[in-house]
Amino acid sequence: xxxxxxxxxxxxxxxxxxxxxxxxxxxxxxxxxxxxxxxxxxxxxxxxxxxxxxxxxxxxxxxxxxxxxxxxxxxxxxxxxxxxxxxxxxxxxxxxxxxxxxxxxxxxxxxxxxxxxxxxxxxxxxxxxxxxxxxxxxxxxxxxxxxxxxxxxxxxxxxxxxxxxxxxxxxxxxxxxxxxxxxxxxxxxxxxxxxxxxxxxxxxxxxxxxxxxxxxxxxxxxxxxxxxxxxxxxxxxxxxxxxxxxxxxxxxxxxxxxxxxxxxxxxxxxxxxxxxxxxxxxxxxxxxxxxxxxxxxxxxxxxxxxxxxxxxxxxxxxxxxxxxxxxxxxxxxxxxxxxxxxxxxxxxxxxxxxxxxxxxxxxxxxxxxxxxxxxxxxxxxxxxxxxxxxxxxxxxxxxxxxxxxxxxxxxxxxxxxxxxxxxxxxxxxxxxxxxxxxxx
Length: 440
Fold this sequence. Notes:
Its EC number is 3.4.11.2. Its cofactor is Zn(2+). Residues 133-195 form the Aminopeptidase N-like N-terminal domain. Pfam families: Peptidase_M1, Peptidase_M1_N. Helices cover 25% and strands 30% of the residues. It contains nine helices and 21 strands. A hairpin with a 2-residue loop joins strand 18 (269-271) and strand 19. The protein is α+β, with helices and mostly antiparallel strands. Helix 3 packs across helix 4 (314-330), helix 4 packs across helix 5 and helix 6 (367-384) packs across helix 7.
């Protein structure tokens, strides 16, 4: 599929995504009323058919009222059931053909059901927040919901002027008419549907650090009453950015924003060029600093270098976990090895039924996957030695920048930096369920 992975549905979420075509651009226009939680949207998807003629295809979209669907400007036949918008164009689309799909939808957005509770569009006490990983994107817009299908995005949101709208990417325009304001954001970098972040709330906007010439602009959108605590908790983020650029290569996007919602979130969530935190992650004593490092690291591992499907999630979480340990090591905290010893001790006491490669849908967000993923990266560091490991790490993020990868892509990549074969390391840490001893 021209640059995409093989044409199979995601084994963990077979109803999500359609590998018979790929989208290269989304243009989404939303009108949102926070009081009644009312959303009206129009979207244009610019796409390319795969290797076979397309007589039909589908998009993922939750339970909205559909106003209109067009394919290349003509009305197709369509059905909309169970989160799937099945479309049969008036004329079959030839293999490799470019085509557009226009959809109008409206309704009251709500999270989509998943094994981890509701995902996607969440109505807050005052505003809204989108956290879609892994399958929440259809809760607010029609998409080809598979991580390997990455596209550029333009998102326009019209909402009452009291609210700030934050999306991943560059703010192109902000236009106020009467009591409403339209915010237009552009994200040119290839982006997976689950990484399209959006937040609407009462925020103060501040800049973090001075990006200097050629530096990354880092902004934050924070409720006013949390600003004093936020200023202390996030004070070292510019230093993290500097370290991660040194270790992983240039930051892969145009800018980086963080949002702190005015309510508690279970965990922070990464989006493209954007991370979302809860008020509970801001305590004024840097209690969540490792999470700030974790979410920032995802911009390289997960967002820029993206997994082909959810079986490979350890490549996102293991590397982000290891980045926490590297930040600790380089900023005067415990060394990565001390962190690994503690993680290994904790995992030894837990069930030994998780394989990093293909953990299964039930365990893909198990906290053991994060710890074990970090340990696997540490074991590879030990096997390669310092110089080769850091060269391998930087090249991994650079060579596959904005690309799609799998575990096999990674094992082949890392093997090129090894003096001796890594098969035993891979076998023990990635493919076996029982926890191997920690390399010393």
